[in-house]
Structure formats: structure tokens, C-alpha cells
Amino acid sequence: MSSELRYDDKVAIVTGSGGGLGRSHALLLASRGAKVVVNDLGGDMAGREAGGSARPADKVVEEIKAAGGDAVANYDSVLDGDKIVQTALDTWGKVDILINNAGILRDITFHNMTEDDWDQIYNVHVKGAFKITHAAWPHMREQEYGRVIFTASSAGIYGNFGQANYSMAKLAVFGFAQTLALEGEKKNIRVNTIAPFAGSRMTETILDKQMVEALNPAFVSPLVTYLCHEEVPVNGGLFEVGGGWMAQLRWERTKGALIPLSNGISLEDVKSNWGKVVDFTKTDHPKDVMGGFQIIGPNLQTLKG
Ligand SMILES: NC(=O)c1ccc[n+]([C@@H]2O[C@H](COP(=O)([O-])OP(=O)(O)OC[C@H]3O[C@@H](n4cnc5c(N)ncnc54)[C@H](O)[C@@H]3O)[C@@H](O)[C@H]2O)c1
What we know:
Elements: E1 11-14, H1 20-31, E2 35-39, H2 55-66, E3 70-74, H3 81-92, E4 97-100, H4 115-143, E5 146-151, H5 154-158, H6 164-184, E6 189-196, H7 209-214, H8 221-226, E7 238-242, E8 245-249, E9 253-254, H9 267-277, E10 283-284, H10 289-294, H11 297-304
Parallel strand pairs: 1-2, 1-4, 2-3, 4-5, 5-6, 6-7
Antiparallel strand pairs: 7-8, 9-10
Helix pairs in contact: 3-4, 4-6
This protein binds nicotinamide-adenine-dinucleotide.
């Protein structure tokens, strides 16, 4: 039995933690010693009644305190992320862990989607994550310590009918996280992304009772909390997690076709090389931007010659 993973003296912010996954992350972190800012504006699922109620955040703070933990409520929108970070600074003087979890849904097929449906999803998931992370980042750099989580979705990774706006936002935060993972590395800031499956108010209308039980948010929080630990063994990872299952994802690329540049490249060259372009029998798993450039090395040599 390994020794218990602890978060004593760590200050965590969990956005949107008045319910669902965020509440579960906050409870677990607090039970292991972290001091937690429970942020939630208490709005409806579509973000139309923003600022609805302080109760969800207060209730989670009460739960944490009743269990002997330490927490403070914050009711600001993630779009005012600096105020949420300020709550952590005013209460405990620092921020070590940030879990970007707040989210809303505006599911509708693309041909019926309004610009407002697009903008509101972008605002909460992407701009909100930017605002709070941007406010926390200088403090993490200064103290040379930070653990940041972004919440993506399989809808962003694979696409999902009726979720063009949500898919856009969920894959956007993954790209955002990948660059932060690179920029934060030297300052001991680790940034990882999850794509969870959970029974919450977001999904309980489309899942049956048994599925909601199997997809208890409590089955997602241990991975998320591990990714926030001092000894986390990964930076820039993407993980699918839910229902007791967890797995890392990575990009896979075919060996592709390298067409000599001497005569230019024609449309017919593309057609005749198509088999190679889409052949996944042998593959690479590129990890960075340079990985794409290295492969065209032989063509660069011919041009030089
Ligand atoms: N449940 C799933 O299966 C699933 C799947 C993929 C991704 N996610 C993502 O996980 C996260 C949590 O979702 P959930 O399923 O727990 O849903 P949820 O609706 O229970 O939780 C989201 C919380 O965010 C809060 N919130 C919304 N807008 C906010 C804002 N502007 N500022 C602060 N708080 C705000 C809400 O009040 C709510 O409490 C979301 O980002 C969601 O997109 C969930």
C-alpha cells in the first residue's frame, strides 16, 4: 500500500465547483489537506441565468468544513478570473493549483446555432479559462510552483452531433494547455488536460439512472487530483477518464508520402500517393512542432543542392 498522497499547505482553486465534477474535485483535494477556493456563480446550465445563486458554492464550502477541511467560497464568473485568484491571495496568500472546470452547454445543430450560442460557449470555456489562468500564472512563476488542469471533452476530440460550439471550445483549451505546458516547464508549472465522462446535470438528461451512477464524478476526481500533485509524472498530457477507466491520448501520424520537389507537386501526385498518406500500418507519434519539419529533411537537402 503506497503512502497517502497529501496536499497540505497547497492552495487550490476549482472553478465551477458548486456541483458536478468541480464539487467532487474540491472535496477530494480538501480531504487531502488542500485549502480550496470553491468558485461558482450558481447559474443555469446554459449560462443564461448567470450569477443566479451563491448557494452551490456555499454548500460545498459547508461540506468541506464539516469534514474538517478548509475552504472559501467565491461567486465570480471565470470571466472575472482575476477576482477569483484574488480570493485565494487574500485568504491564503498564494495559489498552487488551478482546476479549470467551469462550463455551460448550448447544444444545437450548427444550422440553428446563433452567434450568441457560439460566443457564450467560447466565453465561459475559453476566455474564462484564459482570464483566470492569466491571473494565476505570474504567481505560479514567481513561486516556481504550479499545477493547472484544463477540462476538455471527447466532443472536442472526436466531434459530437449538435455540439459545434462546445467542440470548438473544448479542443481550444487543449491547444492552450499544450503551449502553457511548454512555457511553464522551467518554472515547475505542470499543465494537463482531461476529457471526463460523468453523470452531472450536464449529462443526466441523456443518461439512464444506472449510467449516471456508474459515471459518478467521484470516479474522475482521483486522476485529476493526482495530476495536481507535487510529484505528478506528466506535463502536457491529455487523459480520458470516467466510470473507473482512465487512459492517455496522443497524436498518431502515418509515415505519409514524401514527394520529391524537383518537378513540383501535382494533384495527380496526391492521388497516386494517397495510399501512403492514409496508411496507418506504421506510424509516428509526434510530440512537438519540429517533429513535422524533420520529416521533410530530404526535400530541404535537394533544394539546397
Ligand atoms: N459531465 C460530463 O460527462 C462532461 C464531459 C466532458 C466535459 N465536461 C466538462 O466538465 C466540466 C464540469 O461539468 P459538469 O458535468 O460537472 O457540469 P455542471 O453543470 O454540474 O458543472 C459546471 C459548473 O460550472 C459553473 N459555471 C458555469 N459558468 C460559470 C462561470 N462563468 N463562472 C463560474 N462558474 C460557472 C456552473 O454553475 C456549474 O456549477 C465542464 O467544463 C464540462 O464541459 C463534462
